[in-house]
Amino acid sequence: MLDPSACGRLRQHSGSAMTFAEESGEASAVVISQGEQMARPGVGRAVALGWQTREEFGLFRSEMAQGSEVAAHFHRTFSESFYLLWGRMELWNGDAWRGVSPGDLAYIPPGGVHGLRITEGPAEVLTLFVPGIPRERFVLELMEIRQSGRQLAPKEWAEFYRRHDQYMV
Question: By the 8 A CB rule, do 125 and 83 touch?
């Protein structure tokens, strides 16, 4: 159990008032069936896109082979969380590699340097983006670059990453 007094960086929620369309709430629950989810075999699926969640979050389920790596980077405008379903991975937190086991959650706030590598695979990871930015554009464009064999110059890579709020370190 987490002892909040031991976490100096935890902040108390200020508790802003919420408004609803009616006193009893609103009929706004959404179910996104598997058939509605964008999927790529061997890559994963976009479980929930930002436009489907009122831009509150995006959720991806990724399949990653042993040895897969994501180089160290950070995002300025969104947080990213990884929940490992199976396999083993290591997360670079800007200072050191940390082991991540199935059932572990890694949270990276905006501006937090992170990278990851799959040490035992295959692995399956849920990735949560808050707010629900259109991250699928980054994934689709990156897949197209890799599958086409197109070679980008360093300046083109920098522009690609900047467009998608990904700053390599």
Answer: yes
